[in-house]
Every structure is written in C-alpha cells, then in structure tokens.
Amino acid sequence: MSNTQRIILTGATGLIGRKLFAALRERGDELVVFSRNPEAARKSLPGAADYVAWQPNKTGSWAAALEGADAIINLAGAPISQGVIGPRWTPSYKEEIRSSRVIGTRGLVQALADVSKRPKVLINASSAGFYGYQGERILDETAPAGNDFLARVCVDWEREAAAAEALGLRVVYIRTGLVLDASGGALGQMMLPFRMRAGGPIMPGTQYYSWIHPTDEAGLFRFALDHEAVTGPINATAPNPEMNRDFSKILGEVLGSPSWLAVPEFSLRLTLGEMADLVIKGQRALPKRAQELGYQFRFTTLRPALQDLLG
Ligand SMILES: NC(=O)c1ccc[n+]([C@@H]2O[C@H](COP(=O)([O-])OP(=O)(O)OC[C@H]3O[C@@H](n4cnc5c(N)ncnc54)[C@H](OP(=O)(O)O)[C@@H]3O)[C@@H](O)[C@H]2O)c1
Fold first, then answer.
1. pTM for the structure as a whole
2. Once rounded to an integer, what is the mean pLDDT over residues 190-210?
3. What would you report as the CA-atom Rg of the chain, rounded to the nearest whole angstrom?
4. Choice from 75, 82, 94 to test ligand 1 binding pocket (greatest atom count within 8 A of CB)
C-alpha cells in the first residue's frame, strides 16, 4: 500500500493531534483538519490540504469533505483534565466531556453513511481509562471495562465508532495512557512542584501510571493506519508502566530535583474532587496487541523517555 493518504484529522490542534499532524505531514500524507475554529487551526498547523469548520455534534457542510478520504483519525473531545487550573468535573462539564466524544463520534459516523467513496479506516481515540481502576491487575486489551465515569465514556465512545464497521470501515480504538509532554498534559502538571524543589509521590504511591512517549503515540496511530491487520482496541501505553512512587523518583532524578514531599490523597480530593481519581488511582495497562502485531516501541522504559523529552 502507498504510504501517502488523504487523512481527515479531528482534534488536530490538541496535544496528540499536533504531534500526529507533524509526523504524518513529514511522510507526505495529505491532511484535512476538521476544527471548530479552522482559522486558528490554519495558523497553528500550517501545511494541511484543507481546514474544515465542523461542529462535531451537528450535521453540516463539513460532511462533504469526507468524500474520497482514505482515513479518518478522530481525536476531538473536551479536555478531560487540565489539572488544578482547568475546569472541575461539575455535572455539566462531565456531560460536555461525554457528549463531545460520544455525540461527536456519532455525528461523524452518521455523516459517513451518505458518503459514496468512504474512507477505509476510522482510527478513534479512546483511553486506558476504559479499564477503570483495577489496582495491580495487568490490563491487556481483553480486560473488561471499568464502571467509573471515564470508563463508561470510553465504552460509549468506542461503541459509536464501532458503528462505522457496518459501513465497511476498519475501526481501531487507540486506548492511550498518559502521554508524556513537558509543555502540558499530566506531565507538565507533575513537573511544577519539582521545579520548586517540592516534588514527591502522590499517595498511595503504589498506583500504576501507564505512560507513553509522544513518538510512540504518533507511531502507533501511523501503524494502525498502515496495517490492515490492526482492528479493534490497541493499548497505546509503553511496555513498562511505573508505580507513581517510582515515576516520581525517576522524574525527580531526571530533573535534578529531589522527590521527597509526598502529596496526601485528601489534599488532592479537596482541590480536584472526583477528578483526583485520575492521579490517585491508575491503570497497569500493557500494549499486548501492538506488540503481537509487530509494533516496535522506540521508548520502552521511563528514564530514557523522560531524558529524551526533558533533556
Ligand atoms: N493526552 C493524553 O494523555 C490522553 C490520554 C488518553 C486519551 N486521550 C484522548 O485522546 C484525544 C486527544 O487527546 P489530546 O490530549 O490531544 O486532547 P486535547 O489536547 O484536549 O485536544 C483535543 C482537541 O479536541 C477539540 N475539542 C476541544 N474541546 C472540544 C469540545 N468541547 N467539543 C469538540 N471538540 C473539542 C479541540 O480541537 P479544535 O479546537 O480544533 O476543534 C482540541 O484541540 C482526546 O479525546 C483524549 O481524551 C488523551
């Protein structure tokens, strides 16, 4: 198969989307960015073949742009967490998290029904949060879903994407763990106390963080695009998840700042409410399917991954 494809990318302006956009553009793919604000997207991501205004949960003229594309990568969704500075999980914000993914994906798949030359594949974002919080249990793609808020969102989100199978598309769900990114995301938040030499584990410290380097995150999406054997769920997590206490220790060593000031659960619960579960609990997910299918991780252990990103 030729590597050059016309790819629709929703959520391209986000943390994962920006990296994927760059990686796909570098190899010559023709990218069509679907954004709620296409002019801002054009400025922040120059070089796409087109910028299309879309409202994920509403039908509109954007549907015509699906005609003739080879693939869709669907990343869009309201931010799950922006740490202490972001919106709290109020009932209305939880509904936005859910509907931006579930109703948004439904709208995309419904629009595909009217397309005569349909894309061959839909690669839909999902999360290792699919598994909920199952302690030390090793979670490969056969593990059952959890039953907390995020797990239920992921189950519904994947179900909406799966409806594209009936339209003849290959469907892949990328269940991403914690994407390491120093400029934002969870790692950016975790680094703040270390910068003030007040870093430390988040109690209880034994919760697992299933991290992934952005190079492998983009690599797995490309792998899913290019290999027809890839279908269904794929854990996008490095082969060696770390307990929070070890993650904090390695992060402190890489930053040259000690990991000593433990953060108690109750203080996070007070500041973050229900959202605190994201950091107090965690998943021990393993990328079994990706490895079985032959994906070679560039970063398998945390220290080199952090050294690469944080210098
Ligand atoms: N980053 C991680 O560690 C991680 C881990 C697990 C799963 N994921 C999932 O992977 C996907 C991409 O992650 P990310 O970190 O790149 O996300 P992100 O930085 O929050 O960006 C997501 C994009 O979605 C669009 N968006 C924002 N709010 C929206 C809303 N209310 N309705 C519809 N679209 C909205 C925005 O694009 P426009 O403004 O251009 O429309 C935004 O750039 C997300 O769905 C996320 O849940 C991420």
1. 0.97
2. 91
3. 19
4. 75
